[in-house]
Amino acid sequence: MGTTVTPLIDTFGRLADDLRVSVTDKCNFRCTYCMPAEGLPWIPSERTLGFDEIERLVGIFVGLGVSEVKLTGGEPTVRRELPDLVARLHARFPAVTMSMTTNGFLLDRLAAPLARAGLGRVTVSCDSLLRHRFAEMTRRDALERVFAGLRAADAAGLSPIKLNCVVIAGTNDDEVVDFARLSRETGYQVRFIEYMPLDADHRWERAKVVPSADVVAAIDRAFPLLADAGGSEPARTFRFADGAPGGVGVVPSVTEPFCDTCNRLRLTADGQLRACLFSMHEADLRTPLRAGASDEELEATIRSTVWAKWEGHKINHPDFERPDRSMSMIGG
């Protein structure tokens, strides 16, 4: 008889079964809401987890009940031999849902190898459908290349394809209906994410946050929406009332935090475990891993970190403190 897995539960009764694994902090874009134009000091290669280390840690998390793994960065596709890592994880954990979030720039050549290796689907970040604005926001004239990557992902069967769009007031908030129209034409599922204080430049302003409720209202006026039944993901999702393909969702991280139902954990590229995107604490798994710690010892650290997960971030409180690391260093 198999052993019963004691799930990863925190003191607020939340189940952690979704793991984000950052395979690198490096990125080939320089999005204005994420990092400076000159980039950031990258994690030295000797501190970055190797594939053997990632596989072992993922195995421990899966043994603790994690059922979804998303590869992230930085930009995960800049990690050399990424399809090899996907193949290893898929072969060892075939029942785990495995996906990746990417800027799409290298998908035109990597989508097919990743699909063959066992990747299930991709989420592509795309914050504008206008070439000049896309270039301004990412500091890269790469919109056409991203859409080539989307077509390659579609052809490779990495579906359903999701598009993540960070909405910033006065920058791209006038495009939300255009993104909804794109969803109807392609079947892509668009997720509109509220602008969060995770930029390395510390230029985030509350006034630039577009409430998700306003995004939904704008789309609903153009294309009437029907709300989907609530699920485990943080996005509140909607389908088109006329039966058109695709759909939209919103992630109201700032105006309507969903901390009470959060099921996510994050493993950084240098082997630090974060129980919350905005956590002020990281648990070091890399050092004990390399010092010869047993799986049981690593499991104990993971359990204690999840158990100590705080109630939620305090973006809307006067005593809010930003984490030391920006989004690209944490892993989305």
Structure write-up:
The protein has 332 residues and is α/β, with parallel strands linked by helices. It has a single domain, classed as Alpha-Beta Barrel (TIM Barrel), CATH 3.20.20. Helix content is 30%, strand content 17%. It is built from ten helices and twelve strands. A twelve-stranded mixed sheet has the order 7-8-9-6-5-4-3-2-1-10-11-12. Strand 11 and strand 12 form a beta hairpin. Helix 2 packs parallel to helix 3 and helix 3 runs parallel beside helix 5. It starts with 17 loop residues before the first strand and ends with a helix. The model has no long low-confidence stretch (mean pLDDT 90).
Compact overview of the structure:
The chain is built from 10 helices and 12 strands.
Keywords:
single chain; 332 residues; alpha/beta; TIM Barrel; twelve-stranded mixed sheet
Oligomer designation: single chain
CATH class: Alpha Beta
Mean pLDDT across every amino acid position: 90
CATH architecture grouping: Alpha-Beta Barrel
Might you state the CATH topology name?
TIM Barrel
Please provide the ordered H/E string of secondary-structure elements: EHEHEHEHHEHEHEEEEEEHHH
Backbone structural class: alpha/beta
Termini separation (Å)? 38 Å
Q: How many H/I helices?
A: 10
> Helicity range of the residues?
25-40%
Helices, strands, pairings?
Elements (H helix, E strand, L loop, with lengths): L17 E5 L28 H13 L4 E5 L9 H11 L4 E6 L4 H11 L3 E5 L5 H8 L4 H14 L5 E6 L8 H11 L2 E6 L17 H11 L2 E3 L8 E5 L6 E5 L12 E4 L4 E3 L8 E2 L1 H5 L4 H13 L19 H4 L2
Parallel strand pairs: 1-2, 1-10, 2-3, 3-4, 4-5, 5-6, 6-9
Antiparallel strand pairs: 7-8, 8-9, 10-11, 11-12
